[in-house]
Specification:
about 350 residues; alpha+beta; Phosphorylase Kinase, domain 1; Transferase(Phosphotransferase), domain 1; 2 domains; two-stranded antiparallel sheet; binds adenosine-5'-triphosphate; binds magnesium ion; transferase; ATP binding; phosphoprotein
């Protein structure tokens, strides 16, 4: 399987200690490591809700965080809503299961530091991490609307807005050479301002490195692309970027249909083998004939069995299903299939 992040050469002054790990190493000049004060707030600007501030903040001290409530649990950890006592800011704190060895923890810390540099309005911000009593905890931007898991979005216009935001975040991550690997409805979060953001990028990769492969609590394969599940399908070549596009397309179609596109039962309670067979050996799911032509071609540009035939995030942003958002409705139908050809 191809690694999730394209290998980057280690800087000359810092040899890579673990050649099997591939996240680009940050090039830090220690002489510049001076904490800079935050710019003063502009007096006439609209105050930004604390959870949506984009710039990197100093990581609050762990003892200053007060747990308010448990939000939910996934295969790799539990997420809590926490408040920073001194500023009143609300965050989400993801506590990763298990106590890891010292060396693994150090590696996770380094990787999270890199993920911390990701800065895009459509990507959930990582504000830092704690290694507390051997347990790794990640401080995240809090998304008050929760995830889009189980949501049905029958309005194509709203769905196009949602898709536009996710694609903008995904195109950003891909430009940074970060592959998400776990795009699915529960990792797409929404806030009161109706901003949709991608969560858990990189976390799945960290978990994949640290979790016991025999651990039964691995995440779902439901949104994985056929060639990721069955490496024989694409001559053993796995392109993580194209894999993310499959998962994105399947999630968008699920929002439209209000059910898992390969079959409602398969998504939740289905056994692994039937799910695998459906994804790898049946035809990719399609939007129903009742949907607009724009939406149907958009979905088919994502859900191509052959990864090379899927459009990239940047190309999908140019698809008429997305671009029609900027045009009056009358103009939209004339260019319905202009971008539907595959690269
Ligand atoms: P899995 O770990 O199997 O992929 P998951 O994505 O549901 O599943 P978590 O990422 O641990 O698991 O999330 C648990 C719950 O916490 C989910 O309901 C998710 O919507 C919520 N959640 C995660 N991150 C945040 C956040 N930053 N703000 C608000 N809620 C969040
Ligand atoms: Mg998640």
């Amino acid at each position: 399987m191809k690694p999730s992040v394209s290998p980057a050469p280690a800087p000359a002054n810092r040899p890579r200690r673990r050649p099997d790990l591939t996240l680009p190493m940050p090039q830090r000049d220690p002489s510049l490591a001076v904490p800079l004060p935050l710019p003063p707030p502009s007096s006439n600007s609209i105050p930004t809700p604390p959870s949506t501030i984009g710039q990197s903040l100093p990581t609050p001290s762990f003892s200053d965080l007060e747990r308010i409530r448990r939000i939910g649990s996934g295969s790799g950890g539990t997420v809590y809503m926490v408040r920073h006592r001194t500023t009143g800011r609300i965050f989400a704190l993801k506590v990763i299961y298990g106590n890891h060895e010292e060396a693994v923890r150090r590696q996770i810390c380094r990787e999270i530091e890199i993920l911390r540099t990701a800065d895009n309005p459509f990507v959930v911000r990582c504000h830092g991490m704690y290694d507390h009593a051997g347990e790794i905890q990640i401080l995240l931007e809090f998304m008050d609307g929760g995830s889009l898991d189980g949501k049905k979005i029958s309005s194509e216009r709203f769905l196009a807005e949602v898709a536009h935001q996710i694609l903008t975040g995904l195109a950003y991550l891909h430009r940074q050479k970060i592959v998400h690997r776990d795009i699915k409805p529960s990792n797409l979060l929404i806030n009161a301002a109706r901003q949709v953001k991608i969560a858990d990028f990189g976390v799945s990769r960290i978990l994949a490195q640290t979790m016991d492969p025999c651990n039964s609590s691995v995440g779902t394969i439901a949104y994985m692309s056929p060639e990721r599940i069955n490496t024989d399908l694409n001559h053993g070549i796995y392109d993580g970027y194209a894999g993310d596009i499959w998962s994105f397309g399947l999630s968008i179609l699920e929002f439209y249909l209000g059910r898992f596109p390969f079959g409602e039962k398969l998504g939740r309670q289905g056994d692994w083998a039937s799910l695998m067979c459906a994804i790898c050996y049946s035809n990719p799911p399609e939007a129903p004939p009742t949907a607009s032509r724009e939406f149907r071609t958009f979905i088919s540009c994502c859900l191509q069995k052959e990864p090379a035939r899927r459009l990239t995030a940047a190309q999908l942003l140019q698809h008429s299903f997305i671009t029609q958002l900027q045009h009056p409705p009358l103009q939209s139908s004339s260019s319905s299939s202009s971008n539907s050809s595959h690269p």
